[in-house]
């Protein structure tokens, strides 16, 4: 073969190779673009799942905090209920005892001849009984309320009437008809009083 034919053949082979390389490069580019799109979709999906996971974790954390707060509130309410039950368990009993205290006070206020020895001994016995009863209920948190000269308080006093009275300012208690009582700060019976107008 002649040299020219050999050169011609080399040029054709080079052109074929160049054409083949271009085609291979195009195919690789196409193949590379396809995985690139799939990779971008996968990355987007992973980011979306990570966001959902973070949101779910945040909701779960919020739910956990709310549950703990609710448990703390329930525990606190239960403790308060138990405390109130201890404080005010004697309320009904205390109300019933108040009638006995009232009767002993009426007995001491009755007009009797205190000079007679037999009556004086009885009077002293009633007085000592009343003092002991008041001391006993006082140890359990029962205390009297409503004294002459105090300012009228509608939460602790029940006004029977209002009358002008000398020596008293407006809304001062002028007379106590029946003592009121508190049990650990809670009114179990309001005092019945007369108030200066």
Brief synopsis:
The mean pLDDT is 83.
Structure description:
- The structure is a single chain.
- The chain has three helices and six strands.
- With 197 residues, it is α+β, with helices and mostly antiparallel strands.
- It has a domain of 54 residues: Head domain of nucleotide exchange factor GrpE (Nucleotide Exchange Factor Grpe, Chain A, domain 2, Roll), CATH 2.30.22.
- The strands form two sheets. It has a three-stranded antiparallel beta sheet.
- It starts with a helix and ends with a strand.
Q: Roughly what is the average pLDDT, rounded to an integer?
A: 83
Q: For the largest sheet, list the strands in their spatial order.
A: 1-4-5
How many distinct helices?
A: 3
What's the total number of strands?
A: 6
Enter the CATH topology name of the domain at 143-196. Nucleotide Exchange Factor Grpe, Chain A, domain 2
Radius of gyration: 49 Å
Q: Helix/strand/pairing class, anyone?
A: alpha+beta
SSE pattern = HHHEEEEEE
What percentage of amino acids are in beta strands? 15-25%
Q: Looking at the structure, what is the overall shape?
A: rod-shaped
The CATH superfamily of the domain at 143-196 appears as Head domain of nucleotide exchange factor GrpE
Distance between the termini: 144 Å
The oligomeric status of these chains comes to single chain
Specify the helix fraction band: 55-70%
- Unreliable stretches covering 5 or more consecutive residues: none
**How would you characterize the largest beta sheet?**
3 strands, antiparallel
CATH architecture of the domain at 143-196: Roll
CATH class of the domain at 143-196: Mainly Beta
């Amino acid at each position: 073969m002649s040299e020219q034919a050999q050169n011609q053949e080399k040029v054709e082979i080079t052109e074929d190779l160049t054409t083949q390389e271009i085609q291979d490069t195009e195919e690789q580019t196409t193949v590379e673009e396809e995985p690139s799109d799939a990779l971008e979709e996968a990355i987007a999906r992973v980011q979306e799942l990570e966001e959902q996971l973070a949101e779910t974790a945040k909701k779960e954390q919020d739910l956990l905090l709310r549950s703990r707060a609710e448990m703390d509130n329930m525990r606190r309410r239960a403790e308060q209920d138990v405390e109130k039950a201890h404080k005010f368990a004697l309320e009904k009993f205390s109300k019933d005892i108040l009638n006995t205290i009232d009767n002993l006070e009426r007995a001491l206020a009755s007009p009797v001849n205190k000079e007679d020895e037999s009556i004086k001994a009885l009077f002293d016995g009633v007085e000592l009984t009343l003092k002991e009863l008041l001391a006993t209920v006082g140890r359990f948190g029962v205390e009297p309320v409503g004294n002459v000269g105090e300012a009228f308080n509608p939460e602790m006093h029940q006004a029977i009437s209002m009358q002008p009275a000398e020596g008293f300012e407006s809304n001062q208690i002028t007379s106590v008809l029946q003592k009121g009582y508190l049990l650990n700060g809670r009114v179990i019976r309001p005092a019945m009083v007369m108030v200066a107008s």
